Amino acid sequence: MVRVIVDGTPVDVPAGSSALQACEAAGKEIPRFCYHERLSVAGNCRMCLVEVVRAPKPVASCGFPVAEGMEIKTDTEVVRKARRSVMEFLLINHPLDCPICDQGGECDLQDQAYGYGSGVSRYDEPKRAVTDKNLGPLVKTVMTRCIQCTRCVRFCAEVAGTPELGAVSRGENMEITTYVEKALTSELSGNLIDICPVGALTSKPGAFQQRPWELKKTDAIDVMDALGTNIQIQARGGEVKRIVPRVNDEVNEEWLSDKGRFAIDGLLRRRLDRPWLKVHGKLQAVSWQDAFVAIARRLEGVPGSRIGAIVGDLCDAESMMALRDLMISMGSPNLDCRQDGAHYDVSDRANYTFSSGIAGIDEADALLVIGANPRHDAPVLNARIRKRYLEAGRGGLPIGVIGDMGSDPTWAYESLGAGASALADLMADGNPFLEKLKAAKRPMIIVGQGALTRDDSPVVLEACALLAETVGAVTDEWSGLNVLHTAASRVAALDLDFLPAEGGRSVRGMLSGGVDVLWLLGADEFPVHGIGPDTFVIYQGHHGDAGAARADVILPGAAYTEKQGTWVNTEGRVQRGFQAVFPPGEAREDWRILRAVSDVLGHTLPYDTIEALRERLQVGARHVTARRSAAEALSDSVLSKPFASSGASYYLTNPICRASATMQECASVHAPHAAVAAE
C-alpha cells in the first residue's frame, strides 16, 4: 500500500493506483469524461486535472500514478481555473441542443457544465458540424455532440472485442467513425449508450420516447439468457420504456446484452390479454371461469399417467413450483423442463451449474469450451472470458474449443475438432492441449447445450467429468467443470426436480399421443407440430407464439417485467425480480392462475400468497452437496456428428424477441436467413 495525502487527509491505496483513484478513496469527486473504471486510460479530456505539490502544473489525475507521500489538492483556485478552461474548450463546438437531446437529464457534460461552465463563450468562429454515422438499428448517433473521449472506441476494442469504431483525422477535424459505414456487429453494442458521457450515442429505438425523470425504476433480472444479468426496468404508466443494467461485479459487472436491453417493444406486441377456448376448431374469447371449467371437464376421468406438463425458458421458480405441485396432486409423473432434450447429471447440483461461479473465470488459467458459443449463449459472460484473455497476455490463457463457434468469439483459441471424436482424441495421452490443461493450476471446462442436447449426451457428459478429474479441474479448492445454460428457467427447474418421475415421459415422449392432456407453461421452443392431434393442449403464457397457436385453451400470463419472481442463473445464484408494470387486460401472474385453477380441479394448492409459495420453494428445492463421482471413459457408441450450435438467430430465441420489431430488424441485418425463417 502507498500512503498519499488528499486535501490534507492521509489515505492508503494499492501501489500502481492513479491519483484519481486515490482521490476517490478519500471521498473526493473528480470530474471526468474519458476515464472509465473498466476501460484503459486514455487521458483525452483533461477534465480530471488536480494539483500535485511540487509538480510544475496541474496533472491529469486519471493517468498520474501515486507515490509514497504524494500530496494532492483537488479544490484549489489553480484546479478550478484549469477545469473551467477545459470546459470552455469542450463547449466550443458542442451544439446548444440540450432541450431536445435524448441524453438530457443524464448527461455528464451537462452536469459538469453547471459546476465549471461559463455563461459567456469567447469563441467567435463558426461551430463545426460532423456527419452522423449509421451504426445499425440499435445505436443512434449525433456526432456533432461528440467530445472525442474515445470511450466507445475502447469499449468496442477491449470489452466487446469488435474493434469497429475508431478516430480519423486530427485536431478539429477528428471524427469517431466505423471507417466503412456498417452496422455494429457486437451483441453488447447497447452499452455504448451507457458509457457515452454526452448525447452522441443514444438509443435509436427509444429516441424521443421519454425523459429520465418521468420513469419509475424497478430492480429485476434479465431472462433473455441464463446469466441472470441484474437490470433496472424503467417504466412510465403501464409501459416499459427502457431497461438498463445494474452493477453486480459477481455476475454482469455493469454490462447488458442487446437482447435484454432492446427487446422491450416485444412486450407490447402479440400479447395474450384474455382467456381463449377452442370451440368447433376456432379460438373464442371466454371468461376465466369458462376456461377453467373447460379444463376441468377435459381432465375428468383422465389418469395422471396421461397428463403432462412442459415449462418454457422464461419461467420463474414460483410458477414452476405451483405447476409441479398441481401435476403431482393429479398423479402425473410426466414433467419436463428440457424443451431442447438436454441431458444433465442431477445427482449433484455442481454437475448442472456453472459451479466455479461466473467470477471464477477471472481466476482460470486454462479454458476448454465444449459444444458452446459463449458469444451468443451469454454475451456478457463472453466479455468476461475476453477480459481474462487480455489480462493473461498473449498466450497466457490457452483456450481450446471443441464444436462449432459459428462466429468470432472475440478471443483467440485453438480448434480441437468438431464433435465427440475430438473429445476422445483430447483425452489421449500426450495430446498437447491436454498437457496444457494438466499444467494449469485452475483449469476450466465449459460445457454448452450443443454437447448436452445430443442422443449420446449422457456419455459425453461422463467423458467431460472424467476429463475434469484427469486435469485437476475438480478439486477440494477448485470446481472448474461448468455447464453454460441458455434458458433463464433451467437451473431453477432442475433444482425443483421438474423432470420425469419414475415411469414418466420426457418432452419427446409426451409428443405424438404420449399424453392426452398437455400443459404448456410458456413452452414454445420445442416442435409443437409433433403434438398428437387428439392431445388437449393448455397453453399458459404471455405471447401468442408457437405454443398458443396449437392450444385448445389459452390462459394469459404475465411477462417477467409484470410480476415479482425468483430466477436462478447458470451458476446457481438465486436472484429476485420485482414487478414494474401490470399485465395487459385480464392476464395474471402465472402462480395465481395455477392456484385458481387448482380450486376448480379439486386439487387446491396449499398457498394463497407468494410468501407462502416461497416457503414451499425452500422445502421443494433440491439440496445436494455430495461431490461428483468418477465417470467412465468415452464409449465407442458416441455419435460421430459434430457438436452443433443453435440454428436460431441470436436475436430471435424466445417469444418476446420474436414479437419485437427491433429484434426482427437486427436479425434481418445480421442474419437475414434466420429472420425469414422466423417469420
TrEMBL record:
Domain 2Fe-2S ferredoxin-type stretches: 1-78
Enzymatic class: translocase
Domain 4Fe-4S Mo/W bis-MGD-type: 215-271
CDD domains assigned to the protein according to its UniProt record, in alphabetical order: fer2 (cd00207), MopB_Res-Cmplx1_Nad11 (cd02773)
Gene Ontology CC annotations of this record: membrane
Cofactor(s) listed in the protein's UniProt record: [4Fe-4S] cluster; [2Fe-2S] cluster
Catalytic reactions on record: a quinone + NADH + 5 H(+)(in) = a quinol + NAD(+) + 4 H(+)(out)
SMART domains according to UniProt: NADH-G_4Fe-4S_3 (SM00929)
This protein's record includes keyword Chaperone: no
Statement: the UniProt record of this protein carries the keyword Iron-sulfur: yes
Keywords: 2Fe-2S, 4Fe-4S, Iron, Iron-sulfur, Metal-binding, NAD, Quinone, Translocase
Location of the 4Fe-4S His(Cys)3-ligated-type domain: 78-117
A GO BP annotation: ATP synthesis coupled electron transport
GO molecular function, one term: quinone binding
Cofactor binding note of this UniProt entry: Binds 1 [2Fe-2S] cluster per subunit.
EC number per UniProt: 7.1.1.-
The protein's role, per its UniProt record: NDH-1 shuttles electrons from NADH, via FMN and iron-sulfur (Fe-S) centers, to quinones in the respiratory chain. Couples the redox reaction to proton translocation (for every two electrons transferred, four hydrogen ions are translocated across the cytoplasmic membrane), and thus conserves the redox energy in a proton gradient.
UniProt record similarity statement: Belongs to the complex I 75 kDa subunit family.
Protein name, as recorded: NADH-quinone oxidoreductase
